[in-house]
Automatic annotation (TrEMBL):
Residues 234-303 form the PIH1D1/2/3 CS-like domain. Belongs to the PIH1 family. PANTHER family: PIH1 DOMAIN-CONTAINING PROTEIN 1 (PTHR22997), PIH1 DOMAIN-CONTAINING PROTEIN 2 (PTHR22997:SF6). This is PIH1 domain-containing protein 2. GO terms for molecular function: small GTPase binding. Pfam families: PIH1, PIH1_CS. It comes from the Eukaryota. Residues 33-159 form the PIH1 N-terminal domain. The lineage of its organism: Eukaryota, Metazoa, Chordata, Craniata, Vertebrata. GO terms for cellular component: cytoplasm; protein folding chaperone complex; R2TP complex; ribonucleoprotein complex. It comes from Podarcis muralis (Wall lizard). The gene is PIH1D2. GO terms for biological process: box C/D snoRNP assembly; rRNA processing.
Length: 307
């Protein structure tokens, strides 16, 4: 289109708006208000939706926080079968006060976020496929578990927005489509499992129990190691329980329950471990991760501050 053609189009648009303002002032006002509203939403900065915590296993083992954000400057998918556009920032190593962590920001259009907002299964699919994108894009191997943190954003709001603005541009991850997100019958492509929800009952069940018709006569007690992590003043901070489960291939084969004073691990037809804890723990802040390559379950339980 030449400059003259574009100018003619603009003049035609202004003529139509002038005619609308003269013939129907109310419709003109509504039209302009809607345009202003749409522009405001489109140019609004990215907002945090949820924060995930997982672990990079290779090439170097370390914790990773993933900020999932909504940002309307990321286009919406044109159809359910089209790849979902996303924008990712740079994976950053952050040092704040005494804390050092790795964080990555990913943004989707608001319409994509809304699909998983009220449906846990849809939310889980969006998370799974987001983490799959991270593995492929950054050539890393992530843990087969993740935690939804109680806070929506890791790091500052300004850092997150700057990271996305300077990010890699709009990406189209081929396996990720609206159909994937809305199809709750999609097969699980990995062992990725949510081990901890934001709200936890007094007897915390971290892994969904899988029913079985087998009734073993006797279950083995797995090898385990209990470590109490203390501060410089020898005050207990947290308890780490490392359990070796060589016959377990997927986290869904186990049921894990944590209370204030004990831990129960049951793997039907394979293992059972019931331990009384040396210190009272905060079960609501407990996290668990199953490393499928090593066949090891690691449970981290912060010591309760209750008197």
């Amino acid at each position: 289109m030449t400059g003259g053609d574009m100018l003619a189009k603009v003049n035609q648009l202004w003529t139509m708006l002038d005619d609308l303002a003269e013939s129907n002032p109310e419709s003109y006002h509504q039209f302009m208000q809607q345009q202003l509203k749409d522009a405001k939403q489109h140019y609004a900065p990215a907002e945090p939706y949820m924060c995930l915590k997982t672990c990079i296993l290779e090439p170097t083992e370390k914790s990773l926080f993933v900020n999932l954000c909504r940002w309307n400057q990321v286009p919406a998918p044109q159809s359910p079968s089209d790849p979902v556009p996303l924008r990712a920032g740079k994976m950053e190593e952050i040092s704040e006060k005494s804390e050092f962590y790795t964080v990555l920001d990913i943004a989707y259009n608001q319409s994509v976020i809304e699909k998983g907002k009220d449906d846990p299964k849809m939310k889980d699919q969006l998370i799974r496929l987001s983490l799959k994108y991270i593995e492929e894009q950054y050539n890393i191997i992530l843990s087969n578990s993740y935690t939804i943190t109680k806070f929506k954003l890791k790091g500052s709001l300004a850092r997150m927005r700057q990271s996305l603005r300077r990010g890699q541009g709009i990406k189209y991850f081929p396996p990720l489509t609206v159909e994937h997100i809305t199809d709750t019958s999609i097969e699980d492509s990995s062992d990725l499992t949510l081990l901890m929800e934001n709200t936890v009952p007094s007897k915390t069940c971290l892994i969904e129990e899988i029913s079985t018709t087998e009734q073993p006569e006797e279950l083995c007690t797995p090898a385990y190691e209990v470590t109490i992590i203390k501060d410089m003043n020898e005050k207990p901070l947290k308890i780490e329980l490392k359990v070796e489960l060589p016959e377990v291939h997927c986290v869904s084969e186990c049921d894990l329950s944590v209370s204030e004073d004990d831990v129960l691990i049951e793997c039907p037809a394979k293992y059972k471990l019931h331990l009384d804890l040396p210190q009272s723990v905060n079960e609501e802040a407990t996290t668990a991760a199953f490393h499928s390559q090593k066949r090891v379950l690691l449970i981290t339980m912060p010591v309760s501050e209750k008197k």
